[in-house]
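Hi R.,

Here's the chain you asked about this morning:
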Amino acid sequence: MAQILILEKFPLKSFFLRRFSRIYPVLFAFSTVIFAASVAASCRGYKFNSLVGPLDYLAALTIWINYKIVYFGQAGALNHLWSISIEEHAYIILAALAAAFYRRRSIGWLIAALAIFALANGVVRQLGGEGWVLLRTDVRIAPLFLSFAIRLGPEWLRKAMGLVAPLLLVLAYVMAFSDVPPVWQLVVNSVLLSVAVNGLDYASAIFRMPFEGGVMRFVGVTSYSLYIWQQPFYTMHERVNPFILLFFAVAVAYGSYYVLEQPTRRYLNSKFSKVS
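And here is the predicted structure, written out as tokens:
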């Protein structure tokens, strides 16, 4: 985002139109399928934890489902969309701040301060006994903002980060599976991952090689569809063999990418290019 908004000064209108074409068609299709299936199941008298209601559906389509979960309870098979909400909120805030400060590189200091505030906010809320703290945009934007700020820093600093990037990724992985309370995991891993990601381009070629292969690039391109469609299959993991579920989740995701995501993105981008 720092590269797009500050360094390249990519037009905001074009950015958000392209973002819409990338994210929304698949989000809309998935949410509608899940809601329709939930209505049909409810009419037949089925009661599953994965079923969703009208408020869940509306919150998913209007991209505030993270706060719906925080204040009104879980959203069944749409639960995982909380991270999309936070990501889009972060992009809107960053774009607004970039525009307000005329896309000056010095905005990095403000973004870093906001990242620190978000982490402090999470710690205070957690210590105060609040639930679902890590699903709040005003907490979870911290790593995105911190990474944004670091990218605007001097190149020599990112080169230095490249020397320790592999170690930091390992430490972040260990931290994620540790017994450390989640809010403190967020604090530590926000720093570890922000530094590692920004230093990745300057890390050794041997370390970068797995991330630059054809398989990894393909996974990266199709990861959004996989992220969207895997949740219904995951909710059945206690009743169905996980490997069978994984196979069908991947198959549906790849089908979604080639049949829905890629064609709709190309079509919408071609339309948007005429008005942007």
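One quick note: The mean pLDDT is 91.

Cheers,
M.
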